[in-house]
Amino acid sequence: MKAVVLLSGGLDSSTVLFQAKANGAECYAISFDYQQRHRQELDAAVVIAQSAQVQQHQIVAFDLRLWGGSALTDTQMDLPTRSISEMANHIPTTYVPARNTIFLSFALAYAEAIAADQVYIGVNQLDYSGYPDCRPDFIQAMQEVFRLGTKQGREGQSIEICTPLINLHKSDIINLGNRLGVPWEQTWSCYSDGGGTPPKACGQCDSCKLRLAAFAELGLEDPIAYIIT
Amino acid sequence: MKAVVLLSGGLDSSTVLFQAKANGAECYAISFDYQQRHRQELDAAVVIAQSAQVQQHQIVAFDLRLWGGSALTDTQMDLPTRSISEMANHIPTTYVPARNTIFLSFALAYAEAIAADQVYIGVNQLDYSGYPDCRPDFIQAMQEVFRLGTKQGREGQSIEICTPLINLHKSDIINLGNRLGVPWEQTWSCYSDGGGTPPKACGQCDSCKLRLAAFAELGLEDPIAYIIT
Predict the structure, then answer these.
(1) Between β-strands B2-6 and B26-33, what pairing exists: parallel, antiparallel or unpaired?
(2) Could B67 and A91 be called an inter-chain contact, meaning their C-beta atoms sit closer than 8 Å?
(3) Cα(first)–Cα(last) distance of chain B, in Å?
């Protein structure tokens, strides 16, 4: 079994990579340099891919600042620092138009080029229900695109989209990652670039807050460094 | 009405751009520098976009040579020079895995960022039935992704995919383009890079053959320069 794994370098996608490996897949990681402000996640992705001993790690570069529209690519916009209750069902300014569609399209191209069987993605609907492109019906629609948009799919060998985290809360993901031995200290979730050496996560953005709350809920300590916790 | 138009610089997409304009849409063109060997088409796209007086023309750059798999990105592979009868229902080596999926994904991102209503694409199933990602069922699947994968779509304002050429033969497209005033001399269809100044189309690749045959069928002269016709 050969799998392409979307790897951002964060907690979710790192867990997915270790899950794919535990499932016996030969793993090919793919990451995206889209000029996100939290470029630190790309360094994390490289380290995590090495830790998981992937067969290959592709980093695809393009510039999503071209048309803007997101606090993740526009440094003139403030990052949201909401409370967790405010996050539910509200699409935040960190939403990047069509990002998962673009990411899955490249993963599909890579998967077809290497004749992979699966594409893994770490979407989860419970904690980020605000994002339209993290929901199960969107994944189903992309599955149809995978089937009809490729030579391999037309020949009855459609590449399967695997979403092992789709119904998990962040704390469930941490429990799963702990069982799989995910090296949390190598991951990067913060939306800011973590200036300084070594970089520190801000502790204030939505992503930091969800991560910290989940570790706290489990009575565990998050091993990465924060400016404020 | 605001429309994003996928513009390769070839005969089909140029016709689509002029059709979108004739339909009254305010046009935003998008082209892709994916390290295709026929980079001449990008220069053509720039000129055509100017001729059509688009509001904006975005060129998105990324490297599809990363994983190869196509004669359009791998200069070590020969370009196919088949007869037209050999082309029917055979996926050629110029097939680029998931190319239209990637192109439509970026068009969707651009469209959502500028709050466009439509995305135009020049797919046609009749002459290129070999390509899986040019067929109507694939476009329908992408339409579902457009609806479910965006904030705008979730709010009931789904961006519509328009395929005005889907049921046209190449000669029909030329007739349509003539009515719309498409400047054929500015277009580039050839799969080779057309070395020399000014560049000349090879006249031998699948794309040149289809184009030349269609002009000939109509008793018209193709105004671009060929090395061999």
Answers:
(1) parallel
(2) no
(3) 41
Tokens of A37: 């402000």
Does A115 lie at the interface with B, CB-CB under 8 angstroms? no
Q: Which residue of A has its CA nearest to B155?
A: A132
CA distances from A196 to A201, A202, A227, A229 (A): 10, 11, 10, 17
Residue A105 and residue B108: Cβ atoms within 8 Å?
no
Give the ipTM: 0.94
Q: Delimit the domains of chain A by residue range.
A: 2-183
DSSP at B90? -
**Tokens for B39?**
């980079």
Number of H-type helices and E-type strands within chain B: 8, 5
pTM, whole model, 2 decimals?
0.95
Domain A2-183 fold is Rossmann fold (3.40.50)
Measured distance CA(B156)–CA(A81) in Å, rounded = 28
A100, HSE (Cβ side, Cα atoms, 13 Å): 28
- A49-73 tens-digit pLDDT: 999 999 999 999 999 999 987 888 8
Sheet containing B26-33: order of strands:
B56-61, B26-33, B2-6, B118-120, B160-162
